[in-house]
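User: My notes are a mess, but here's the protein and zinc ion's SMILES. Can you give me a structure?
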Amino acid sequence: MPNCFLINHGKHNRSYVYNKVVSAYYEIIFKLYFSLQSLIFSRLLTYEKAYIFMTQETQKITGFHAHIYFDSASRDVAARVREGLGARFDVRLGRWHDQPIGPHPKSMYQVAFLPNQFEKVVPWLMLNREGLDVLVHPETGDDVKDHTDHALWLGEKLELNIDILRRVRTS
Ligand SMILES: [Zn+2]
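Assistant: No problem, the inputs look usable. Here's the predicted complex:
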């Protein structure tokens, strides 16, 4: 009761000051607590929104391909990379294509994997592709876009034969 302390000035001076200090102290603690809580809460909301946004936007990706390009000189290297991928990850290794096929302008093999493997497979390829050029593309049902706008290249970007894909799309 602050009033009572004010009236009995002399007698309760100490407890009045003490009381004031304590209540100010608690006020600071509460303010800190609530501002920290609202900060954490707003951060969580932001992350949650970003996550929902991301999953909705990428839901149409049913899988990924990594195309590992090589030539006669780098075929052994390509075999090593292939072995590394097969031994470590849940991937489907496609057969060797020693001739250009489809939109792919040079020899390659395909590595197919589900979206949940992306974060494992792609960083590994980034560090272990041994100089080979790699195309990573999603599968959204639009072959042309997946091999152009949606494509991710490690190493050199090769000129793909997109016309072949366009012809397939229009036929
Ligand atoms: Zn592909």
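Residues 65, 67, 110, 137 surround zinc ion (CB under 6 Å).
User: Great, I'll file this with my notes.
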